[in-house]
Amino acid sequence: MPEKTDIHGVMIDNVNMDEALEIVLTMLKGKTANKIFTPNAEIIMQANRDPELLNILNSAELVIPDGAGVILASRILKCRLKEKVSGIDLVKKILTNTKKRPVSFFILGGKPGVAEKASINILSDYPKAKIMGFRNGYFEESETPEIIKQINDSKAEVLLVGLGAPKQEKWIHKYAGQLNSKVIMGIGGAIDVFAGNAALAPEFMRKAGLEWLFRLIKEPGRYKRMLDLPRFMILTFKKRLKQ
Ligand code: UDP
């Protein structure tokens, strides 16, 4: 079991990308569903205001540091995390590894047609991956039993859930016990990226930890939510001063 690092109450696994992949491969050999969450600074701030979300994040089998802000906070708090392991990069790593270990997926989330487009692109980039099914993320609670049946009937080993945070974390936590997939992972907007509907920040911006700036330029409407980023840094410095 990897060591955990406390970032404002969220217990993050101190793993690098290779270690995260190894953990996923071990989960795939198991018998029960394992939850993977990918908190970034915004989600950690949401969890600070929402004890239910905090408990859900901390109950997952694997919690990876998604974003440069989380890594920076770990350095400021002197509990250095090894490296950023974003949800989308871990999914790509599992997909790349399908050359050695084929894996089957079900994709749940995104607007109608997006999961389908993502599936087509994934199959063309990673021919050894199997996509057993997909479904858009706009449904009523009453449709959930039928969705669970569709996922279980598909026999997918990995369920990727992109309903946005905290909806996806709450949905996964509530229904993991009824799902037969071995790995259930919340992946936010990654389905849109695989579908080609949303771009990732260019490499130089990702390296400089400026993904937040890229997102703000692309989706200025998110600025209110993004105020959580400076709040996250202020909270981090306050904690550092108390150390
Ligand atoms: N989404 C969804 N169902 C919902 C709300 C959102 O499938 O009820 C999808 C949305 O289409 C997008 C993804 O969830 O693909 C992420 O949404 P958002 O940008 O709001 O969340 P974040 O990336 O900040 O977690």
What is the topology?
Layout: E1 4-7, E2 10-13, H1 17-29, E3 34-37, H2 41-49, H3 51-58, E4 62-63, H4 68-76, H5 87-96, E5 104-109, H6 114-125, E6 130-135, H7 144-154, E7 158-162, H8 167-175, E8 183-186, H9 190-195, H10 203-207, H11 211-218, H12 223-226, H13 228-242
Parallel strand pairs: 3-4, 3-8, 5-6, 5-7, 7-8
Antiparallel strand pairs: 1-2
Helix pairs in contact: 1-5, 2-3, 2-13
Bound molecules: uridine-5'-diphosphate.
The site of uridine-5'-diphosphate has 14 residues, from helix 9.
The side-by-side strand order for the widest beta sheet comes to: 4-3-8-7-5-6
Classify the helix fraction into a percent range: 40-55%
Instruction: Indicate the low-confidence ranges by residue numbers.
Output: none
Distance between the termini: 27 Å
What portion of the residues fall into strands of 2 or more residues?
Answer: 5-15%
